[in-house]
């Protein structure tokens, strides 16, 4: 069977509604078959799901997310943010943006931001009156926000790979500094959009100390959670990868034992629901990793890049094509393979065009961040589709404004090196 | 009535399945938390915890996906089927589910191939358990999934719920029957 | 014919430079009949995955450290046993005798050993000088998650090591969750851990070594002439690596010192205690038959000779 005939059949099946994991696994199977390998290679690749960094965090954060989402926490969050930021249009949405960025920086930008934090934020945004479309778009696009902030793992990986591949002046602390302004730019643009969105909502009541005190008292059990986790990590008591277990345990105790918003009878159902989410999402992720492995084996990214670099003669054209290239790669390849394979290819070409390796790193990660929710195959779209029970088409439509805003930010980051390099001194 | 008895039997099976999933994720939480506790308070840890946790998540994922198949909650692109008249929609559903069943069947077969490959040169997974044991998740999980896709192919896409149950706007959670 | 080789070594490292040179040599020497391709940076997966792919024929070879290969061939971790070697001369003396024995062991397991090369000595590096047992008892030491031998050694010595995924180590050093690591000087620089490392204990913890192995099925498909070209090219690459590794590690250590790292010695009785623990761990492995007693005896014999000189 030829590649095109096989792809055509699989696409037709996808259009008829075959589950996505099966479609992607089918494409990978076809690829390995045409490459002449023993198809058991596909099982080897699927089993690599178990080697994923931070794997155990996914079900634990999913559990915490379901517990929070079904408890009264979203309502309390709305009350607290109204009491504190009621005067600010889009206040709650801005809180959500900041929270997503923080969370992703620590957990390393997989879908866990959506399943853990989005689960809390989406119902809160809806209860505060934000439209379904805006709320869905925000939690989906927010799922990869914060990739540019320390201590994000992809940033550390870039520093390591670039340092080896000849970008001698790339240090991880420099990358941490360089990511600050571009990351802040993305958050600022999304916050402006949030304020515009917030104008349309009914104004919150005037600020009142008693309301604030009441809201604080009501959330007294949830508020310490971020402090415990962040404090634990910064004080060196916890590794970043251990945050999930602490969070899940804390949330379980608060929702079931202290606030008693989820009964022991309901608990198994909520837990099973979290596992179903993990299953549906990890199966797609595993299939995507297998497809990614086939592309790596066939050296597709390398060949594509070599073709590209032959047709580029100016720094500006290089950067523009780089944006498109990385966007495509960000959708198809997992972020770790993308960094490890592409950085050694990109560095020398970028150097020839006079692009600073630290700037290149920020551009690259900003682009890959966009790839997480780029239609049609960004992973975050699937995760949000499952978590919030909405068709993919709805998610894609909801994400378009966010995509355009963040794409504009990426272009700005790309063509304005000063933004990345200003803090380096 | 036999149909009713089958229904009851199935409900019991599904409840048991959910309990198993809940127990698995509870075990994973317990393992992760005790590992942290042992390290912070007793300066020690379980040597097998890391490997067991990873294998546990893999089993969790496959069993979870199996349960997601039961609830028809796998993510799919359903733009076209939504536009079709009910009859054709049922047909599209059946074709897609049968194809998924066939693919899961082959994945189960390949997973079994992986187990056999590993048995030729087994290494210890954790003390006393060879590395092919956790791999059984693939043939088992995908095999059962193939079976379940076959069953759902016959019963149609159900009411207007795809992919996943319509959530209630208050909580964003899928409504439960 | 294509030979696809996976390695954890990142693009741009000395390993990759020499391997690519060898590949060019093979291409020229076989008149283009054999093409060697590399997949660096761990993109093909970890050691277990690469070995599976070799058995399935997707890959033909891989570069592994001794401890990675220990899953298939336990004796491959022989050189990396704790506190086995004291200096480079001892390494050279032992390897001259034992490399061929290891090659035979690999062959019995369906692997053709094409090259062996040192990566360097791993040292204990931390945020404060270590001299006495009391100093050592207080460290928060990182070890790789699956390094059972290191974990056993340090636990015997009264240190509870903290196993973490390698991606967590940079952040853990920043937050103080760990304050001490064991790695080669060049490895610490490459991973950019050196910002938090102030002192190095001048007692080689273990000799890290890389093995380039090829699957026997791929080897069998090559013509005798091509095999010779391949073997010659990769043995040459390994020799060049071996010749430069000592200098490279010295350079790396100098670079660390320029950044303020101090090299300290353990008190003699503390050094002797750790060497004794190394012996104890080796003896345990020997009695469990986890490592071949005959090979270990040979290593001990050569070492005794070298130390007598
Ligand atoms: Na991706
Ligand atoms: Na190293």
TrEMBL record, chain A:
Q: Which GO terms describe its molecular function?
A: transmembrane transporter activity
A GO term from the CC aspect: plasma membrane
Residues that span the membrane, as ranges: 46-68, 80-99, 105-125, 137-163, 175-194, 274-296, 316-333, 340-364, 370-388, 395-416
Identify one Pfam family in the record: DctM
The residue stretches assigned to a coiled coil in this entry are none
Location of the protein in the cell:
Cell inner membrane
TRAP C4-dicarboxylate transport system permease DctM subunit domain spans which residues? 7-418
Keywords for this entry?
Cell inner membrane, Cell membrane, Membrane, Transmembrane, Transmembrane helix, Transport
Question: Which InterPro entries does the entry mention?
Answer: DctM, TRAP_DctM
Where does the protein principally reside?
membrane
Topology term for the membrane: Multi-pass membrane protein
Q: Which family does it belong to?
A: Belongs to the TRAP transporter large permease family.
Against NCBIfam families, the record matches this protein to:
dctM (TIGR00786)
**Function summary:** Part of the tripartite ATP-independent periplasmic (TRAP) transport system.
Assembly information from the UniProt record: The complex comprises the extracytoplasmic solute receptor protein and the two transmembrane proteins.
Its protein name is TRAP transporter large permease protein
UniProtKB/TrEMBL annotation, chain B:
Instruction: Respond yes or no to whether keyword Methyltransferase is given for this record.
Output: no
Name residues in a coiled coil.
Answer: none
Gene Ontology MF annotations: transmembrane transporter activity
Where does it live in the cell?
Answer: Cell inner membrane
The way this protein sits in the membrane is described as: Multi-pass membrane protein
InterPro entries in the cross-refs: DctQ, TRAP_DctQ
Mind telling me which GO cellular component terms the entry cites? plasma membrane
Supply the alphabetized keyword list.
Cell inner membrane, Cell membrane, Membrane, Transmembrane, Transmembrane helix, Transport
Domain of life, per lineage: Bacteria
Q: Which GO terms describe its biological process?
A: C4-dicarboxylate transport
The UniProt transmembrane annotation reads: 51-70, 91-112, 132-151
Hey, which family's this protein in?
Belongs to the TRAP transporter small permease family.
Q: Subunit structure, per the record?
A: The complex comprises the extracytoplasmic solute receptor protein and the two transmembrane proteins.
Q: What does this protein do?
A: Part of the tripartite ATP-independent periplasmic (TRAP) transport system.
What name does the UniProt record give this protein?
Answer: TRAP transporter small permease protein
Give the organism's phylogenetic lineage: Bacteria, Pseudomonadati, Pseudomonadota, Gammaproteobacteria, Lysobacterales
